[in-house]
Amino acid sequence: MRTRRRTKQFVLAATVAAWALALTGCTAGVAEPSGSGDEVSLTFLVSETPNLTAQYWDDAIARASEKVPGVTIKKVVGENTPAYAQQLFASGQAPDIFATGIANGLAQKGMLAEYTRDEMEKAGVTDFTSGTINGKFYGVAVGAQAIPLVYYNKDLFTKAGISDAPKTYAELLDDCAKLKAAGITPFEIGGGGKDTWATNFALASAVAADVLTVDPGWFLKRAKGEVKFSDRVFVGAAKKVQDLTQNGYGDKAAMTRSYADLEQAFLGGKAAMYPMGSWFAAAADKAKLTNIGVFGWPSDAGKSAVPTVSGSGMNVNAKSKNVELAKKWSLAFATDKQNRDLGVITDGDIVTVKDYEIPGNVGAVYKETVKAYDAALAAGATVPAWANITGDGALPPGFSDLMTAANVDLLTGKKTPAQFAQYLDQKYAAAQK
Amino acid sequence: MQMQNKYRLAPRNPLHVLLFAVPGAVLYAVFVLWPLLLALWSSFTDEDAYRLTTSFVGFDNYGRLFTDPAYLQTLRNTVILALICIVVPNALGLGIAVLLDRAGWAFNVMRAVFFIPVILSSVVVAVIWQQMLKDDGLINASLRAFGVADPPGWLSDPSLALYSVGWITAWQAVGTCVVLYLAGLQSIPKELLEAASIDGAGPVRRFRAVTWPLLAPSVTIMTVLSMIGGFKIYDQVKVMTNGGPGVGTTSTLAFDVVRTGIDAGAVGYGAAKAAAMFFMIAAISLLAIRVMRRREVDL
Amino acid sequence: MTAEAGVGHRTSGRRQLASQIEAGRAGPARTLIALILTAVFIYPIYLVVLNAFKTQDAIYRYPGLPTLSLTWRNFVDVLTRPDGLFWTGLINSVQITVVGTLLSTVLAAMMAHYIVRSTGWFAKMLWVVIPLGVMIPPATTLLPLLRMMRDLGLIGSVFGLIVLYVAGSLPFGVLVFTGFMRTIPKELEEAAAMDGAGPVRTFWSIVFPLLRPAGASVVIFIAVGLWNDFITPLIILGPANGSTITVGMYRQISEHVSNYGAVFAYMVLATIPILVLFIFMQKHFVKGLLGGATKG
Q1: Chain C nearest-CA residue for B295
Q2: Gene3D superfamilies from the xrefs (chain A) (predicted)?
Q3: Between residues A77 and A300, the one the model is more confident about
Q4: Mean of pLDDT over chain C
C-alpha cells in the first residue's frame, strides 16, 4: 500500500519534471538566425527605461526597417554598459548592433565595425568629433548632451534675493551664502548605493570650468602622461567641490538618495541648484515646471563650462553576419526624424542631424538647455564632457568606479584634495592598459 | 554461491557506482571543479579583457595582493562582516528560540514569521533596508520625531555603513537560527530538565547545564554556515552601498572580485583575488569542521 | 557509537518533540514580549506589503503608515507591463526551480547513499571533494564558467542554467543527506536485497522514503537558492531569452524612476510562490533540520 503511494508520488514528480523540461526546450537556445530567403536577421541590444519603453523601441525599429529592406531586427533587452557588452563578447552572446555607445575598449580590440565618413555624411550626420577612437568612427553621433549643466530653481533664487544666474565662481559662492542665509539648501549633490555615480556631477562641472575651459585637450594629455591630476589646476577644482560641502552648501540627506529620489528632491524644491546632465530637462518638462533655469558652471575668470558629448551609439559587431546591412540599418535608425523627436521629448537630446527641426511641443526647460548649448557652440566655448565621453580622451575602463568612490571621500572630507588627486593618479596608471 | 549472490549488498553491485555516484560526480567535476581550476590557472597570468595579449606571470598577482592596502581593507571588512554574521544571528536566534519555545497557534505563527526573511532574495532585503536606513529614511524620520536632532548616517557615515550592511545580513539569517535552535530545544528530553529542576537548578542554571551542551552541535553548524555566508556577502553591498561611502569602506572580498575581474576587466588579478578568497574560506571551514567533530565526540 | 544506537537516541528525541509542544504553555508576559519582538522584527516586511498597495504620492508622504485609499494599481502595472517582464521571468524561474531542485535533490540523495554505503576509494574521494563545493563562492568561478558555457553552446539557455544549478546544488544536498543517511540502519536494505531487490529498487522503496524529512529541508534550501539567485542568471541567461524573476526584479528596481509602489508590488508577487512552497513543506522542513543538526 505504502509503496504504491510512493510510486504515485514519484510519477507525479516525474511528470512535473518532464513538463517543465518540455517547456525549457521551447525557450532554450540563443536567437536562431531565422529569416527566409534573402531576409537577414540581426539582433539589436537596447535597454528599456521608463523614458525608452518597449513600445518605443518596437515602433522605432519598425520605422527604420521600413527604410532598409531585407532586414529583420530581433530586439534583445539588456544593460547598456561597456562592462556588460564586454561580458556579451566574452560569452559569445554579442548582438549585431548595440543601441548605446560601448565602443571604448572593444573597438581597439577590433571587435567593432568601422563607419566611413562618407556613409555617415550621406545619412545626414554632422558631428564628426564625438566618440572617435584613434580618429576612427565606430558609432553614430546624432544626439548631443551637455553633461553637466547647473539647473537652478528661479523661485528659490528670488526668495534669497538673487536676480540672475552667477557669471563667475565668486558670484556663485556669494549666491550660495545668500541662499543658506535664507534657509535654503544651495546644492543637491548626492547619490548612494548603486547610484553613487550621481555624486560626480559637481566635480565634473568644476573640472570642466577650471581645467577644460583653459585647455580642452587636458584629458588627451592626461592619457599620454603629460599632465597629472596632482597638478595645481585639477587639485584647485577638487578643492572647490570639497569646500562647497564643507561649508554646508550641500543637501545633507542627499548622499544616500537614489538617483530617482535625488531628482524628486530637486524638483520638489529641496535645494536651489542641481548639477546634472541635460537629460534632466526632459524630467523637468514632464513635471511641467516653469521655474527652472540653467547655466554653465562658471570659472573664476567668468567662463562658463558647457561640457558636451554625443552619444555615439549604434555600434556594429565586426563579426555580424552582414556588417554592411547592419551599418546601413543603424544609420537609418539613428537619423530617423521620429526617433530623434522621441529622443528630444523623452531624454532631452540635442539633435545634430542635418536639417533637423525641433518639434513644436517641447517644454521650456528643454528650450533653455538648447539655448545654452547653442550659445556655447557659437562662441566655440564647448568642452568635452570628460567623465562621460566614450572615445579618445575617455577615462580608462574601471577608473570611473574608483573615482566615484574617492569623490565621496572628497565630499565628506575624508580625503584632502591633494590626497584625492594623488589617489586618482595612482589608479589611473593602474587602469591604463 | 548463488546464495551469496542473493545476499550481495547494493554497495558492492557495480550498478551502484554507475547509477548513484557517476552522474553526479561527472556533473560536479565539469561544472564546479573544472571552472575552479580554470580560475586558478588564470590567476597566474596577466589576462585583461581590454588587452589582446596575455602572458604567464607566476605568483606576481598574489604578491601584489598582500601589499595592496585596498585589498587588506577589503579583507578586514569581510572579517568584520563574518564575525557579525556569526555572533548576531546566533545570539538573537538562540534568545528568540528560547522565548518562542512554547505551544499555541500564536507561537506557531511567530515562528513562521521569523523565517520569512530567510526565503527572500538578498536583493529584496537590501532594497527594503535601504529605504529604512537612508539619511532621510524611516528610521531617522522616527528618531527626529523623538527629538534626535542629528540622527546617524547609517549608510552615509563611513564608520557606520559596514555595520549597517552586517546588520541586514544578520537580520536575514536570524530565522534560520531560530528554526534550528527551536528544533534543538524541542529535541531535548524533558526528563533531563525535570531532573535538573528536582536537583534545585533555576532556569539559568538549567539552561547552562542541560540545554546549552545539548544545543552545542546546532551552534557549531550554524557558526560554520554563518561564517561562510558572511565571507560570501555580495548582493547587499552591491545594492546598498556599492562598496562605499568613499573608497572601499564596505567593499567585501566577493564585491572586490567582481569589480576587479569583471567590471575593470583585470581577469588575471581578479582570478588571484578569487582564488585567495576560496582558499581562505576552505581553510577556515575545514578548521571549524575539525573543531565541530571534536566536540561531537565529547557528546 | 554505532548507527543503530544513534537511531535509537534520535527516534526517542523525536517522539519527545510532540509531547514537549503539548506541554509548554506560555504565560501572558512571555506572549506579550514575543509579540512585540516579532512585530519589530518583521516591520520592514510589513512596510513592503503595505506600500505595494499605496499610490506613489502616499508612499512619499506617509511611508510608514497605512492610508485610506489602498489600490491594486501597482500590481496591475507589474502584471501588465508591455514587455511581460514579470511573466517571462515567472515561467523561466518556475522551470529552473522545479527541474533544478528535483534533479539535484535526487542526484544528491543517490550520491549520499553511495558515499555512506560504499567503502571503496571512490566514495572516500567523493566525501573529501564534494564538500569543497559548498565553499566555492559563485563570484570566483563566474568568468571561467562563462567561457566554458559558451564553448559548450549552453550559454543563454534555460537548459544550461539548470545543468549548472544541478551541479552547483549537489554539495549541499550531499552534505545534508549523508548526515541523515548514516542514521538509517543497513539492515533494512539488507533485508530488501535478500528479497532480490537491486540497488535501484532498494533505494527507491526503502531508503528514499526514509529521507523525506531531510529531503524537505534540502528541497526548500535549494529551491529558495535557485529562485533567488541573481548573478548567475544575469550573466548566463544573457539578454536574449528574457530573465528570471529575480533578475527581472533588479531590472524593475534599476530603472531610473521612483516608482516604488511597482517595485514593492513586484517583490510581493515574486515572493509568493516560494512562500507557498515553504508553507507546504514547513513541517517536514523543521524535522529535517533537526535531523541534520543533531547528527551533523
Answers
A1: C296
A2: Periplasmic binding protein-like II (3.40.190.10)
A3: A300
A4: 79
Interface of B with C in 141-170 (CB under 8 A): 141-142
- Chains in touch with A (3+ beta-carbon pairs under 8 Å) read B, C
pTM of the model: 0.82
The DSSP secondary-structure symbol of A112 reads B
Collapsed DSSP state (helix, strand, coil) of residue A161: coil
Q: What pLDDT score does B246 carry?
A: 84
Digit-coded pLDDT (tens) for C57-66: 777 777 677 7
C129 at interface of B, judged by CB pairs closer than 8 A: yes
* Subunit contact A264:C60, Cβ cutoff 8 A: yes
Domain extent, residue B256, equals: 61-298
* DSSP 8-state assignment for residue B154: T
Contacts of B182 in chain C (CB under 8 A): 286
Domains of chain A as residue ranges with CATH: 40-144+311-362 (3.40.190.10), 149-276+395-431 (3.40.190.10)
Report the domain count for chain C. Answer: 1
Contacts of B241 in chain A (CB under 8 A): 192-193
Distance from CA of C219 to the nearest CA of B (A): 12
Q: How far apart are CA A193 and CA A259, in angstroms?
A: 10
Put simply, the answer to whether C162 touches A24 (Cβ < 8 Å) is yes
Instruction: Provide φ and ψ at A152, rounded to 5°.
Output: -135, 155
Domain span holding position C180: 73-295
Tell me the per-residue pLDDT of B172-215, one tens digit each, with 9 for 90 and over.
Answer: 999 888 888 887 787 777 788 788 888 888 878 888 888 887 77
All residues at 6 or more sequence positions from A232 whose CB lies less than 8 Å from its CB, including other chains: none
Size of interface A-C (CB pairs under 8 A): 108
Residue C237 resides in a domain: yes
Looking at A2-95, list the stretches that DSSP marks H as alpha helix, in order from N- to C-terminal side.
2-27, 54-67, 82-90
Interchain pair C193, B34: CB under 8 A: no
> At A137, which amino acid appears?
F
Question: How many distinct structural domains can be found in chain B?
Answer: 1
- C40 exposed, middle or buried (CB, 10 Å; 0-12, 13-18, 19+)? exposed
CATH of the domain at C113: 1.10.3720.10
Spell out which residues of chain A touch residue B52, defining contact as CB-CB under 8 Å. Answer: 109
The residue of chain A with its CA nearest to that of B51 is A433
